[in-house]
Design brief:
2 copies of one chain form a homodimer.
Chain A (H helix, E strand, L loop, with lengths): L6 E6 L4 H12 L4 E8 L7 E4 L2 E4 L1 E2 L10 E4 L3 H13 L3 E4 L15 H4 L9 E3 L3 H17 L1 E9 L7 H15 L38 H14 L5 E5 L9 E9 L5 H10 L3 E3 L11 H4 L5 E8 L6 E8 L3 H19 L1
Parallel strand pairs in A: 1-2, 1-6, 2-5, 6-7, 7-8, 9-10, 12-13
Antiparallel strand pairs in A: 3-4, 9-11, 11-14, 13-14
Helix pairs in contact in A: 1-9, 4-6, 4-9
Function (chains A, B): Catalyzes the NADPH-dependent formation of L-aspartate-semialdehyde (L-ASA) by the reductive dephosphorylation of L-aspartyl-4-phosphate.
GO biological process, one term (chains A, B): threonine biosynthetic process
EC number (chains A, B): 1.2.1.11
């Protein structure tokens, strides 16, 4: 029996909502860790975190934190990634970045393992983890892309507040309590913490996630558009997105219209989806079975349902795609990439 | 000075969520009422209701209730409309029906005043009020249809629980309290009261409104598809809908992708929308201004924003349309039709 190869692993942003889920995934998957370093901003340094029965003290992330680190998982915001990833690479680490910092960098692979795991091999020290709303959509569409080709995607999202961090969850729950008590809640964080205007999220739908771009789309919408093309490796793919925050804690839902390049049979589509890696088909109108955010929360899979041929365009399909935005949408996708790197070096 | 012509008016379903709003609208608009009859099922008969300082006792609706009634507004469910409207017509009443009973009947006008008020003249005793989610969409799209032509509409909805009645509101609020208290709420009504499977609506998104049809679409989705074509008077219009219930009390939101038949200028589109009857343009990304359900609640207008040219199809627009589903989506649209009838007889 051979000894498994073990790795020195760093988690940057270990005290955040995604960092917490990355640690859970590493533990649950029994990731082959030799030494684990938990890193954060100076503000959160000193925090104690349990991992597999051992207590770790979070340290401030600095360039020298990455000495000896072989795999580093970043989820501490784009600025931290931009500042520290070059130093981590210099010190020999392979970085898996969960922020927007490197996603559209032409030299950086943007990876959803079910779609383009082969791209990991092309990395120059950093592999980008896509945006949550993109990951679940491309994972669900990949089997259809391979079998029929896809010409166009029109998506409207129903995104959970956890995508905006732990403080947005707290705000939504606080506002909900205030409304239920007959009060008029003061919005404080959403839609975008760094922008001046705030809107109530409790019992509301906010059609803004991240900042507006000059073309009238939000950055979240542009992420879905650009990242989908890059991950699918197809710049001819036409993608439109409208991204909306709704009062859900965990789990993004997506209403997706997709035009295929070939005729298709709906039964074959369902069979393809049901058999695809990482996907679960939940589609039975007779028993009112379809994916729900509350069911997907806490699970690693992408759930697909409401699959039906469009009535106005026989080459188009409508579907409903749901996944936990902190898991497949972030932590689990990152740990999948880390497992692939570990396996290729074992 | 001439005396205004007054009318004998009946409100059927006076104790329901929509009936209540119809009475409020009739009072606010100072509708020219001679005698007002409040009707309901036997169960609610005897209920006392205030209207303009007078107390009315709700009576059970029977065929003979409509003797002498000139205008009858129905919102007591499709079965009641089917059973009683023929009797009301026989007794000389013009009926404005807020249910699904007559909407797709070829001989019945389906009217959104901003779109096709001229169709009222063709009635044979009943004018149908469209489905809430359809009304706000066609009201917003009509100016674009007239100016540029529309070839295709793809809509995903974010619908309030009040569309499923007062009991659905109560359920959503109760479930929210239970979740906030750490409990696991038992769903009881939604998605469809008469179907066996129930789903949690609090902090969730349910992609089912009304029953599934054989084609995999729900009845709500088919209403949007069929009614839009009928109201626009254009069977060539291609319409796709995905209808989703979210935890909002009042106000449906809609993410709408629309393909126009001609080139357009986005600034002209915004000017058209801002100047159209019944519409309010709320569209300024710089100040994070766009329609919100919580702002639209209690207002009669349809609010439009997030208007932007599609990046993948220069002939297409994306927009966000919000309105109070009980007002423009039901009571206000019905009272607008009643006002038109009254004016044409004055």
């Amino acid at each position: 029996m051979s000894t498994p190869t073990l790795f020195n692993v760093a988690v940057v942003g270990a005290t955040g909502a995604v960092g917490e889920q990355i640690l859970k995934q590493l533990a649950a998957r029994n990731f082959p860790i030799k030494e684990l370093k938990l890193l954060s901003s100076a503000r959160s340094a000193g925090t104690k975190i349990e991992f597999k029965g051992q207590t770790y003290t979070v340290e401030e992330a600095t360039p020298d934190s990455f000495k000896g680190v072989e795999i580093a998982l970043f989820s501490a915001g784009g600025d931290v990634s931009k500042a520290l990833i070059p130093h981590a690479i210099e010190r020999g680490a392979v970085c898996i970045d969960n922020t927007n910092a490197y996603r559209m960098d032409p030299g950086t692979p943007l990876v959803v393992p079910e779609v383009n795991i082969d791209k990991v091999a092309e990395h120059k020290g950093v592999i980008a983890n896509p945006n949550c709303s993109t990951i679940q959509m491309v994972a669900a569409l990949k089997p259809l892309y391979d079998r029929f080709g896809i010409s166009r995607i029109i998506v409207s999202t129903y995104q959970a507040v956890s995508g905006a961090g732990a403080r947005a969850i707290d705000e939504m729950l606080r506002q909900s309590k205030e409304v239920l008590a007959g009060g008029d809640p003061k919005p404080d964080i959403l839609p975008v913490g760094s922008l001046p205007v705030k809107h109530q999220i409790a019992f509301n739908a906010i059609p803004q996630i991240d900042k507006f771009q000059d073309n009238g789309f939000t950055l979240e919408e542009m992420k879905m558009i650009r990242e989908t093309k890059k991950i699918m490796g197809d710049e001819t793919l036409e993608v439109t997105a409208t991204c909306v925050r709704i009062p859900v804690v965990y789990g993004h839902s997506e209403s997706v219209y997709v035009e295929l390049k070939q005729d298709f049979d709906v039964a074959e589509v369902k069979t393809l989806l049901a058999g695809a890696p990482g996907l679960v088909l939940q589609d039975d109108p007779d028993s009112q079975l379809y994916p729900l955010a509350t069911d997907a929360a806490g699970k690693n899979e992408v759930f697909v349902g409401r699959v039906r041929r469009d009535l106005s365009n026989p080459r188009a399909l409508n579907m409903w795609i749901v996944s936990d935005n902190l898991l497949k949408g972030a932590a689990w996708n990152a740990v999948q990439i880390a497992e692939h790197i570990a396996a290729s070096r074992a």
